[in-house]
Hints:
homodimer, 2 domains, 7-stranded mixed β-sheet, Quinone Oxidoreductase, Chain A, domain 1, Rossmann fold, 6-stranded parallel β-sheet, alpha/beta
Amino acid sequence: MTETMQRIALARRPMGAPVDDDFLLENIPMPTPAEGEVLVKVHYMSLDPYMRGRMDDAKSYANPVPLGGTMEGGGVGQIVASNAADYAVGDYVFGMLGWASHACLKAKELQKLNPKLAPITTALGVLGMPGFTGWYGLIELGRPKAGETLVVAAATGPVGSMVGQVAKARGLRTVGIAGGAKKCALAVDKFGFDVCLDHTKYADGKAMRAAIAEHCPKGVDIYFENVAGKIFKGVLPLMNVGGRIPLCGLISWYNAGALGANAGGEKDNLPKLWRTILVNRLSVNGFIISDHWDRYGDFLRDVGPMLAKGQIAYQEDITEGLENAPRAFMGLLTGENFGKQIVKVN
Amino acid sequence: MTETMQRIALARRPMGAPVDDDFLLENIPMPTPAEGEVLVKVHYMSLDPYMRGRMDDAKSYANPVPLGGTMEGGGVGQIVASNAADYAVGDYVFGMLGWASHACLKAKELQKLNPKLAPITTALGVLGMPGFTGWYGLIELGRPKAGETLVVAAATGPVGSMVGQVAKARGLRTVGIAGGAKKCALAVDKFGFDVCLDHTKYADGKAMRAAIAEHCPKGVDIYFENVAGKIFKGVLPLMNVGGRIPLCGLISWYNAGALGANAGGEKDNLPKLWRTILVNRLSVNGFIISDHWDRYGDFLRDVGPMLAKGQIAYQEDITEGLENAPRAFMGLLTGENFGKQIVKVN
């Protein structure tokens, strides 16, 4: 009997929000590591909003997942077979393991983890790509100064919670936005936001604006953009002169069809956006964290000790079973997760 | 008989494009300089696109001109009466003299000019605010690198022609955009653009895009934004990863009603703009040159010698008579001027 592994493939490209039939759970033969490769048993895999983009065929900063290909994603696990020097069976590693029970890949594409320093799941969230994204965008592009006001949405997620905590530690007023009373309480109690607004209470950009304005008496200096949509529309008019908008995601528009070829129109006003950037001398910087791995060491040196001392909190939402990854991912895109979304695979 | 001076006041706020009746030419008593003040006879006044914004009541980076107030603007002239130490009758000066035959203001608000170093009109254009705007935005926010491609519109204007020449001197491919064959020829022959496209040939952003793409085989690294409209829409999809957009004006939208309270809609797609900034990691920086006068000395040290050696060309379009300023201004907003628009007043 051939040994098999499980994986989830992209069955078809979603129309708007992904549904079950866009994914296919299947068994494939267990691979054998070639020279320089290792076989990793996946313990935990990460679910992140960027994956929605990879499901589309549109030009982006990374290639789309091919139809029938394994869904991409980061994961942590243990080496179960090694054909590479310096990588032993039992070693804990992080890498782009995909939505799968096992992954066979070049050892040099992996990063070893020390489970004694921090739980291995933190490599997927607070100490991994999402935490690094928040830290880099805030520090490098947001240029925070004590006394300023910061707004960030998805405030309990791994990006937003990092942004809020680092900003708070540097003396900023931090205004979070999240969906629902439970998340808002978490944002304030665990992540130290000065206030957290429940966006489900506000129907559109105008209502959002009024609510944010009330809690930002000195305007907004940094809007860390990871959601777009009505929150973006609400914050933009409140930006102070010289404000900064690090832009790393637009999750609320990923599913909405707002980015499709025939989208547009609604009530958007591109000229007004452009004028706002001019009149308020805003700096808008799109960034993709994978361009900046050279700074990852700086991030770990800054945030690692804070985490160890309990000065940086994190929240994980762990779903059990690879087969439940598609539903967890759909939930992530609509904000049903409570903290960093992780799937326990093995 | 009381001595009088002439001025042009804002008679009413324009609805869209300004018309004659929005301006009022009138005689007022000649002022007498108080302690610390001088009376300046205006020789030349500048007309610039930003003045359209001052005619509206909307919040902007500067206060609007009040109804009945003298239209604002820079000018050069000679002191005819002085009540300030170190400022003598006959001195040439630059300052915010307004649309007027004479101006009475504090001497310390003026900048002395040496007419032997360069014609005094250059203080309004190539060596003044517009030239400085082009230089600062390109150098500081555009961060030009040899081998890159730059696109700038209003290529024969004082901002665009400076941007093109400085970029060319630094080894970039320079693609200008201007209205009409005559301006396009000037852009190439006098300002050294590698190519200049006539935007009147292209109906919309899509057509503009195709034309620009043909002449930017390696994409666009810097789009110096001073016009917006269809040129902006055409260039944006062609921006390379890491591209920069210094944003200092949107002249094509100033008159179009595109910025009014009830504007918007058309076929604009705000989500797509935002996504483009993200995916291509663009840096968009709104700037107002008046924030950066501390760098004016650097500009003069860099560009002054180039001008003296004939390495920087400039083109002026001089209208005779204060009474013709409104019409010249209307023409400026629709691109009828040929080079830097100046009015010879006295």
